[in-house]
Amino acid sequence: MGRPRNDRLAALARRVDIPVWQRDSTARPTMTVHEPFTGEVLGDVPVGTVDDVEHAFVRARRAQAEWAETPVRRRAAVLRRFADRVHARREEILDVVQAESGKNRMSALDEVLDAMLTARFYADKGPGLLADRRIPGAIPLFSSATVVRRPRGVVGMISPWNYPFSLPMGDGLAALFAGNAIVHKPASLTPFSTLLGVELWEEAGLPHDVWQVVPGSGREVGGAVVDRCDFLMFTGSSATGARLGAQIGRRLVPFSAELGGKNPMVVGAGADLEQVADIAVRACFASAGQLCMSIERIYVEQEVYDEFCDVFARRVQAMRLGAGYGWGPEMGSLVSEDQMTVVTEHVADAVAKGATVLAGGHRRPDLGPLFHEPTVLVDVPADATCHAEETFGPVVSVYPVADLDEAVARANDSEYGLTAAVFCATPEQGYEVGTRIDAGMVNVDEGYPAAWSSLAGPSGGTGISGVGYRHGSEGLLKYTQAHTIATQSRALNFGGPGSLPQRVWGPALARSTNLLKYLKR
């Protein structure tokens, strides 16, 4: 299947033309989007300004007031129609995601499935999560209380280039379902995936101004979004997340962030090494390793270390690399020369300090300008850059450990704590090991998809891997403000009967309050 037509991308670019977010008709500079497979131009998108961000928030706040009054069941219907539109136009979405990111088609399919399934999950479960909730009042029979959820207002969203469809769509649908509007700065490398997604939302019935897209630089447009939003959702590096967290914290505005990962895999004796190697290929090299949840460290029990290295290296060497829009390649391209520089420097540094390359290790200009082989390293010393720092590319290091206890200790020896994978002789043993790993998501007998796709549970990280959660009740309710409304009986309030002296009412209130412990048993 061929690349997306340039006229189709031009139509998407017009979504960010004057009617959407520009305050005036002054022509804007444009940024050019390139296809990583070939380096060819895909199209141009106008670049926003701080003034444009301000205008976008004005429009979004006006639209949000009406959207928040839309009944929850009707908002759920919009989510279901969005999921249906994603399924109906999945081939077009795959084309656009591949064209902008350079990933292989199966990795692009992850994005389609994630957006579709998350929309349907919240459409089904979300009304119950947002419903008013009765709670016990302070004084039985004389007090009642209810917790109500209200939208925060306008959510600012800054999304990355590595999953340009599923991450903004997944974050956005939860924010929208909670009754918020969105002002969104997509990654400069991959704006078309976002624009296509917003087009699908409007086809599903979302009012036009509820989701505003303002492309531009992170420093100017992104900073302006942070300064104006009522809640910030950011996905990106831990360093940038810390900076934006400090910026928005000065306004005491809440935020959520999924950040970096240096994710470990534990392989115990007794695991099926052939199966582990097949799964590890996906876990390490999906989207060419440009995934915050990809595995970059593998700890293998000593007695099976040599065998695993042999099996894994052979499987990696057999991987099918290539450009194109068909289903053949197992791994595609890196997204930019900046990413290529990081990958090549990490590999060169490790080798210079004594590491051995078991598989890969080289650029592949014969396949395209940004192709790099999936790379397996062993004997990586502690002072190598890739030993502790996130590579965010197709590079994984394998280390021997004496036993599973050492594997857990090594896995936990990191500032990061996003996800982990565990393979042992039995699922029960794997589960026990998994409970000891400091990561927000742990997968037993699978890479990242098992925990990530368990939509009823929270998805997030510990340490410098993030703040807050996606998915589950937490992933929706973070976009709301909780309000407790309590009603006290007029027959008895906390001041006591009007004719009763305080010297009598005070001790009586204390004794009766103490008696409440028996009612709760």
What does this structure look like?
The protein has 521 residues and is α/β, with parallel strands linked by helices. It has three domains: 255 residues, Aldehyde Dehydrogenase, Chain A, domain 1 (3-Layer(aba) Sandwich), CATH 3.40.605.10; 202 residues, Aldehyde Dehydrogenase, Chain A, domain 2 (3-Layer(aba) Sandwich); 25 residues, no CATH class. The protein is built from 19 helices and 20 strands. Strand 3 and strand 4 form a beta hairpin. The longest helix has 26 residues. The N and C termini lie far apart (66 Å). The model has no long low-confidence stretch (mean pLDDT 93).
Structural class, by secondary structure, is alpha/beta
The number of helical segments is: 19
- Which assembly state applies to the chains in this document? single chain
How many domains? The number is 3
The CATH homologous superfamily of the largest domain is termed Aldehyde Dehydrogenase, Chain A, domain 1
- What is the CATH-assigned architecture of the largest domain? 3-Layer(aba) Sandwich
